[in-house]
Write a structure and sequence with these properties.
By secondary structure, the protein is an alpha+beta fold. Helices cover about 40% and strands about 15% of the residues. The chain has 14 helices and ten strands. It has helices at about 5-20, 20-25, 35-40, 55-65, 75-80, 95-125, 135-155, 160-170, 175-190, 190-200, 205, 335-345, 350-360, 375-380, and strands at about 215-220, 225, 230, 245, 255-265, 270-285, 290-295, 305, 320-330, 360-370. The strands form two sheets. A six-stranded mixed β-sheet has the order 3-10-9-5-6-8. A four-stranded antiparallel β-sheet has the order 2-1-4-7, with no helix packed on it. Strand 1 and strand 2 form a beta hairpin. The termini are far apart.
């Protein structure tokens, strides 16, 4: 008979394990397992990004998603990461410091030229007009000399890295010519090109004005919403008056006129489109440092000629182009508000005739579009406007009478 040891050994092994208390009891530990530690690491709070130090596109996008914008250029932020707590003008780069010495020498030469030009201007102002072509000749000469003096002031600081750093950080003083020059150059590189493209695509020129050359940057916002040139704006958003930001790049204060014009008003009787003025205000002071211009704060007695009328488009009509023009008044001349209120009307307002009568010059422009939407009817009722229950439709062209051809020609 065979030995039963081979069948009994596995059973004995199981009994021995069941009798061992170390196998029956499970130890309790206070440390987390590896996968729990990984989960804890992944759920930890994200690192706080410094707007002065982010230097990659990914970090910039993460910072913008939190509502904070990076400060300065990416090149500046990358330099601050490697050289912390060191003033910008003391960066330990030999080439940078040697270049600053050369720029300092050039700046001193420009300052000497500025002093020499100022002496020439003072000497020209003391001359008798009869010796320099009369009053007109003297005035033209002085204008040219002052223009050259401003160019020298710009050339003295245009290559200074500290000036560029302050401008990129948004700390530039617009009273200084160099910061106005840098702001004008930055605006002309992109924003002005976009504005001129929208004006050309939407035929603001020549439908409203025969020619337009803006020299001032104009930004538009309804409440907290910034409006891009040519963007569609909901009628409920544009029901309240907007806010403009007009940045001038010339020194001194100017008096301007604001005109908001709708150039796509349907005229059913004449089967064409006309104009309607939605806002008109005059004698508004602006300067390079005074840029904010809310319509609601303008004086109703001495500035506002036609108050704000909510933009609206009747059902069935194509989108309406609403143009905002900033017009410079000649020689800082104050216009008569009462006389203008008796002459100017909303419907049929012609901007070309207005410019010719008052000799104003367009220096800035912005535009947006409106179309019939779900809130237009309520906006028109609240403003007391008629036509919300009228739908415009295109007139079908009449069919030409059919003329039967002679069948003999086909035989």
């Amino acid at each position: 008979m065979s030995n039963p040891t081979y069948t009994i050994k596995p059973a004995l092994r199981c009994l021995r394990r069941s009798q061992n208390p170390l196998h029956r009891l499970r130890s309790i530990t206070t440390t987390a397992s590896q996968y729990q530690e990984a989960a804890l690491r992944s759920t930890s709070a994200p690192p706080v990004l410094d707007p002065n130090l982010v230097s990659t596109r990914k970090e910039e996008q993460q910072l913008l998603s939190t509502g904070v914008s990076p400060i300065g250029s990416r090149r500046r932020r990358a330099a601050l990461q490697s050289t912390s707590n060191i003033p910008f003008e003391q960066l330990p780069y030999q080439c940078f410091q040697e270049a600053r010495k050369i720029l300092q020498i050039d700046r001193e030469e420009k300052l000497q030229q500025i002093e020499e030009e100022r002496r020439r201007i003072a000497k020209a102002e003391a001359l008798d007009p009869a010796k320099c072509g009369g009053d007109a000749g003297k005035k033209g000469k002085l204008v040219a000399m002052h223009k050259y003096l401003e160019q020298l002031k710009v050339l003295a600081d245009v290559n200074d890295p500290l000036i560029k750093k302050r401008f990129e950080d948004g700390l530039g003083d617009m009273n200084r010519p160099i910061y106005r020059y840098l702001a004008d150059r930055k605006w002309r590189e992109y924003k002005r090109l976009v504005m001129m493209q929208r004006i050309s695509q939407m035929h603001i020129v020549p439908d409203v004005l025969p020619h337009l050359d803006p020299i001032a940057e104009v930004s538009l916002a309804f409440g907290r919403r910034n409006v891009q040139p040519g963007e569609f704006v909901d009628s409920r958003v544009s029901e309240t008056s907007p806010r403009l930001n007009v940045q001038l790049f010339d020194k001194g204060e100017k008096l301007v006129t604001l005109v908001v014009l709708d150039s796509d008003v349907p005229n059913v009787e004449r089967d064409t489109f006309g104009y309607r003025c939605h806002f008109l205000a005059i004698n508004i002071p602006l300067s390079p440092t005074t840029t904010s211009l809310p319509f609601s704060v303008l004086s109703k007695e001495s500035q506002v000629v036609l108050p704000w009328l909510p933009p609206h488009a009747q059902k069935g009509s194509p989108y309406h182009r609403l143009s905002i023009f900033v017009l410079q008044q000649p020689d800082e001349k104050v216009l008569d508000v009462e006389a203008m209120r008796t002459k100017e009307e909303r419907h049929g307002f012609n901007l070309r005739s207005f410019n010719d009568r008052h000799l104003v010059k367009p220096i800035g422009v912005h535009l947006f579009r409106t179309i019939w939407d779900e809130g237009t009817e309520g906006v028109m009722k609240r403003a007391g406007l008629e036509g919300a229950n009228i739908e415009l439709r295109r007139k079908k062209p009449e069919a030409l009478p059919y003329k039967k051809k002679d069948g003999a020609r086909y035989r």
